[in-house]
Amino acid sequence: MNKLLAALIAGLFATAAFAQSPAPAPMPQTPAVVKAEAKADKADAKAMDSEAKKDAKADDSVVKAEQKAGKKKSKAVAKADKTKMNAEEKVAKADPDDKMKQEAKADKTSAEADAKANKKMVKADAKVSKEKIDAGTDKALAANKTAEVKAKGDADVKAAAAKQ
After folding, report:
1. pLDDT of 34 over the 90 cut
2. In a domain, 3, yes or no
3. CA-CA to 134 of 20 to 30 Å: which in 82, 107, 149, 163?
């Protein structure tokens, strides 16, 4: 039974392989079609190169924005820490009678310094987010331009082939 089944399956594959039609012979291309294809390929390569450059430039601008934001955040935190430290020194130097007043003043100064630092950090993050959005837009436009060039090249090749 197994041999019969194996023979039938082998016969099925042999029949399927034999029954396939040969691939159609490619039509000879005219010089106009060859020229159009070469022109389209050249335009595609140029568009892809341009897209790659724009992508790299967009990525680079995002990295620079992130580095700049990191520096701004560090400076803001350092400045807030320095302000808090100065306030604490004033508390330490204050007379025992004025100590409570200085502590309240130091707490207020500390809160203001933290708020100011947080505000700078949020603004820095917002700039990074904006830069990322702009980079994404630039990349999308470059990809769209590349697709447009490819479509125009394909249309030119079809037009040249239709003139035969």
Report:
1. no
2. no
3. 149
Distance of CA 146 to the CA centre of its chain: 16
Q: Where are the beta strands (DSSP E) in the chain?
A: none
Mean pLDDT of the chain: 87
Asked, for residue 42, whether it belongs to a domain, the answer is: yes
pTM above 0.70, yes or no: no
Q: Are 152 and 39 in contact (CB under 8 A)?
A: no
CA distance 142 to 58: 11
Q: Give residue 97's domain range.
A: 36-162
Cβ atoms of residues 162 and 100 within 8 Å: no
Q: Please count the structural domains in the chain.
A: 1
Using CA atoms, how far residue 160 sits from 20, 37, 40, 154, 156, in Å, is 32, 9, 12, 10, 6
Q: Check pLDDT > 70 for residue 75.
A: yes
In a domain? residue 28: no
Would you say residue 6 lies in a domain?
no
How far is 158 from 162, CA to CA, in rounded Å? Answer: 6
C-beta of residue 36 within 8 angstroms of C-beta of residue 157:
yes
